[in-house]
Design goal:
By secondary structure, this protein is an alpha/beta fold. The protein has a nine-stranded parallel β-sheet, with helices on one face. Strands 13-12-14-15-21-20-19 form a seven-stranded mixed β-sheet, sandwiched between helices. The longest helix has 29 residues. It is globular. The protein binds alpha-D-galactopyranose (GLA) and zinc ion. Zinc ion (ZN) binds next to helix 6.
Length: 673
């Protein structure tokens, strides 16, 4: 979609469902969408029931008409394959497509995202439909992307999945002995004699709550298996459409930090990343920024598509407050500032029935253009027209990276001890926020990504160290890199089996410490440490550690381990490795990250007041500095460079003061000296 964009601008549009409406309303939709400067529509997201009304019948008449109409009106199309909700006849005829829930409940026909990923019928018919769609519409040159299914997700615990899990395990481990070893089944006499003894880990077997399992090994492997099973469904459709239309890029809309699917693995099979951004009104700016950066990191920094956001309001929150005036524009540009090359919505037109009828849309139930939301949408559309191709393809240059790893997310989530409050996502986010607040560009990377381009790598809660990863970090630090990790790191291998000899296992020599015990603090309990004259809280977990080469930068103040290190620094080769032995607060993270960045020669883009976010993207046209005012009041910003705001054509000289209105945005095209 990004490379294939005929109009060569930030594509603007989103989900459009004309099949839900009488045909004589379509032309008016076209008038309104044009008025709003919409240039792309995502079609055919949930039409399987009408495209294939029975096992052997396919009917494309309506979609043909829709394709012709939008093409006549010059719209680009993001064409979905409709496989995110199966038709009723399929559930009746092939009940194996129905999912079984975590508690063992077999579902009946209903809702969406409801197909068992290991159902042979689902795989057969979804692939067949994708093939038919590709064959039928292959000659449309306004199809800018394939949108496979929709927001893949969830999990299934049915018998098909159980059988497939055994096969998956056989491929992975070859012998049942290897499985027993990997899962340490000598514990509680759990030895499996045969692959057929293995059942799916859920409330009927190993679990006593969603994330409480008696055997982490099996639960972790199930997570991997489930993510891969669903990925297999995506890949079958990918291959089907790719074989017929190799020139059309293929994506599926991801959901940001989505726990059940290992998006880093998924990304390998996607031509470009697209994702759906649905913050609540009180979501803080760093949380949104984090997800954008996570999505950008999936393809090593390549631009991504903002596939969905609401123009105004959602329907599924407990309180669906309106996006305040200016917020839709601000959050659209925030996506672009972090690497998006499209701005798209769910949805073009509000439906009249079912659960999304009160979800925001470009065309509201009022049916005309005289609404606040429509005015905001068309104003933004006009701006995007004006920007044209200027920012397309621009990349973010980061010298710092934070490691985010789905296996670590799952493994820490399943961990029995040391604390139920241990939360991988929050821990990573704490460090991310420090970078974001300091206006230091940071990439979110996987454990497979190359580290050599970075000067500073942070791996919070690197509980699981996969084979070879310690070596990668070792080389990075030896060659002069700065590395930081935290408590509860280096404990286990990729099977969640403890590396014995002292924590943090294979990271010990790099960090120059060993951890003897870890104290989990209940909710309101705190220890503290003084760092550079300031007292900071120590919460959640306090490691009791000994240095073996590292220098202690600060020590605990209270309890029987007062005086033991809370923060250490180890010179290793030409680099330095830091260990943060506890959780602290935002001030501490900002201070520490700021200092290490300075030491590593990483500069903030500039200093800004709180709630003013600033990012940079560069392409062949130059460098663009995005200023985003998330505050409800205006701010004066002294510019650190000369340039022109591409939204208003205002020219600024280095040192000029630019006023950013409340929720305001400026994109300064920098004039290089
Ligand atoms: C998701 C889905 C859409 C729609 C929106 C509503 O992103 O992909 O089909 O349900 O949520 O917010
Ligand atoms: Zn299943």
């Amino acid at each position: 979609m990004i490379e294939n964009n005929k109009v060569h601008k930030i594509l603007y549009g989103g989900d459009y469902n004309p099949e839900q409406w009488p045909e004589d309303t379509w032309e008016e939709d076209m008038r309104l969408l044009k008025l709003a400067h919409i240039d792309v529509v995502t079609l055919n997201v949930f039409s399987w029931a009408s495209l294939q009304p029975s096992e052997d019948t396919y009917t494309f008449d309506k979609l043909d008409k829709i394709m012709e109409m939008v093409t006549k009106h010059g719209l680009n199309v993001c064409l979905a394959t409709s496989t995110a909700a199966h038709p009723a006849w399929m559930a009746r005829k092939h009940p194996d497509i129905l999912r079984t829930e975590f508690n063992g409940m077999k579902r009946k026909f209903g809702s969406r995202h409801n197909s068992c990923p290991n159902s042979p019928a689902y795989r057969k018919y979804s692939t067949a439909l994708a093939t038919k769609l590709a064959e039928r519409y292959k000659s449309y040159d306004n199809i800018v992307a394939w949108h496979i299914s929709n927001e893949y997700g969830g999990e299934c615990y049915c018998e098909n999945c159980e059988k497939a899990f055994r096969t998956w395990l056989k491929n992975k481990y070859k012998t049942i002995d290897a499985v027993n070893q990997a899962w340490d089944t000598a514990f509680w006499g759990h030895t499996f004699y045969d692959f057929d003894d293995i059942v799916l880990p859920n409330m009927l077997s190993e679990h006593f709550a969603e994330n409480r399992t008696t055997f982490q090994g099996i639960s972790l492997d199930y997570r991997r298996f489930n993510s891969e099973s669903i990925l297999d469904c995506y890949r079958l459709e990918y291959d089907a459409v790719h074989a017929i239309t190799p020139h059309i890029p293929i994506t599926t809309n991801l959901m940001g930090a989505y726990y059940p699917l290992d998006y880093q693995m998924w990304a390998k099979y996607m031509d470009f990343i697209s994702w759906d951004n649905y913050p609540a009104n009180d979501t803080v700016l760093e949380d949104i920024a984090f997800k954008h950066d996570l999505m950008r990191g999936l393809k090593q920094g390549k631009p991504f598509a903002l596939m969905e956001q609401t123009p105004s309001v959602t329907n599924w929150l407990p309180y669906n407050a309106l996006k305040r005036p200016g917020v839709m524009r601000l959050w659209s540009y925030q996506a672009v500032a972090h690497g998006a090359d499209t701005v798209m919505f769910f949805q073009m037109k509000r439906s009249i029935g079912a659960c999304e009828k009160y979800h925001g849309a470009v065309i509201d139930h009022a049916g005309h253009e005289n609404t606040r939301v429509f005015r905001e949408i068309s104003a933004l559309g006009a701006e995007l027209d004006k920007i044209g191709s200027l920012t397309l393809g621009a990349r973010t240059c980061s010298k710092a990276a934070i490691v985010f790893d789905w296996d670590n997310w799952w493994a820490t989530d399943y961990s029995a001890g040391p604390s139920v409050n241990l939360n991988y996502f929050d821990e990573v986010l704490n460090y991310y926020k420090a970078f974001n607040n300091l206006n230091i560009s940071v990439d979110l990377i996987s454990v497979e990504d190359d580290l050599s381009g970075y000067s500073f790598v942070v791996a919070p809660l690197l509980y699981m160290v996969k084979p070879g990863y310690d070596e990668k970090i070792r080389r990075f630090v030896q060659n002069g890199g700065r590395f930081l990790t935290t408590f509860f790191s280096g404990y286990v291998d990729d099977h969640d089996l403890v590396t014995i000899g002292g924590y943090p296992g294979k990271l010990r020599d790099i960090l120059g410490i060993w951890v003897e015990e870890e104290d989990a603090l209940p909710n309101d309990a705190q220890n503290s440490f003084i760092y550079q004259g300031t007292t900071y809280p120590a919460t959640l977990i306090c490691d009791l550690l000994h240095t073996e080469g590292a220098q202690s930068l600060s020590e605990y103040e209270q309890d029987f381990y007062a005086g033991m290190p809370a923060l250490t620094r180890n010179t290793f080769g030409q680099g330095v490795a830091y260990y943060v032995a506890t959780r602290s607060n935002a001030d501490f993270y900002r201070t520490l990250i700021g200092e290490i960045c300075e030491e590593a020669g990483i500069r903030p883009i500039m200093d800004t007041p709180e709630l003013i976010e600033v990012t940079k993207r560069s392409n062949a046209n130059g460098t663009f500095m995005f200023f985003l005012n998330h505050d409800a009041k205006s701010h004066d910003i002294k510019l650190p460079c000369s340039g022109t705001d591409i939204l208003t054509d205002t020219a600024y000289k280095d040192g000029d003061v630019m006023t950013l209105s409340a929720k305001g945005v400026a994109i300064i095209h920098i004039i290089e000296n």
